[in-house]
Every structure is written in structure tokens, then in C-alpha cells.
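Saturday, quiet lab. Running sequence design on the C-alpha cells for the scaffold JK sent over.
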């Protein structure tokens, strides 16, 4: 069952995808809060500083990233969107690809929506 996804959330997700495939830490930073957490099945909760350091060092890079939102909710200055995402890239110089269910939680900060938490769940098992 799919819910209607507000257009601004689709735009936010698209901008976040573009930032991630840019592999530009500054561009990614504009999409996330200072306390953003990425939750992965492999490593659990990873703080913003760690994931941005890994991207900035070139250890992790993304070549493609897509998300198809299926559920969303907006309550005041908080919003969440869940969908299915796929991405490709490299980790530790090895090719990787992922097929995941992704939930992004957004918070409005100084008039701008920023992702404060991204939670990844593999579709059908391990990703990498």
C-alpha cells in the first residue's frame, strides 16, 4: 500500500540522492543535520562525522542512487519518508551495490528541511 508522497519530500529525496552521488562532503552536509545518524545492518548507527570522513577519504563512493518513496508523513517540523532504494559504488576499492528499504527522517532547521536519520534495511538479505 502506497501513500501520497508530498512533492517537497520527493524533491528532498532527489536532492539527497544527487548529493550522495556527487561524493562531495559539502553538498551532502547541506542535506543533513549536524546530528545526522546513518543506521546500517553492517555497522549499526554511524554518526555524521564518520560517514562524511569515509566519503571524503574516497573509501566510500557512490556512482548511482535511486529511491522510490512509498510512505510518508509530515507533522509540524518533522517528516519521514520510506521507500525502496538502490545504489552502486565502491567501498574500500571494491564494487558494491545495494537494494534496500530506506527511511529518512527530516527535521526543519532554520527554515530548511534536513535529514536527521537514515535507516537502511536490506531487501532479501545482505547488500554488500
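Result came back. Writing it out in full:
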Amino acid at each position: 500500500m502506497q501513500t501520497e508522497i508530498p512533492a517537497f519530500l520527493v524533491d528532498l529525496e532527489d536532492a539527497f540522492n544527487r548529493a550522495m552521488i556527487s561524493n562531495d562532503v559539502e553538498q551532502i552536509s547541506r542535506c543533513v543535520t549536524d546530528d545526522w545518524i546513518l543506521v546500517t545492518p553492517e555497522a549499526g548507527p554511524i554518526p555524521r562525522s564518520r560517514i562524511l570522513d569515509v566519503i571524503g577519504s574516497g573509501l566510500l563512493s557512490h556512482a548511482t542512487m535511486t529511491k522510490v518513496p512509498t510512505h510518508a508523513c509530515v507533522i509540524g517540523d518533522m517528516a519521514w519518508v520510506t521507500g525502496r532504494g538502490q545504489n552502486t559504488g565502491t567501498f574500500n576499492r571494491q564494487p558494491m551495490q545495494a537494494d534496500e528499504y530506506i527511511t529518512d527522517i527530516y527535521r526543519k532547521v532554520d527554515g530548511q528541511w534536513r535529514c536527521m536519520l537514515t535507516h537502511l534495511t536490506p531487501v532479501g538479505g545482505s547488500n554488500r
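Notes for JK: The radius of gyration is 14 Å. The chain has one domain: 7-122. Ask whether to fix the surface positions before the next round.
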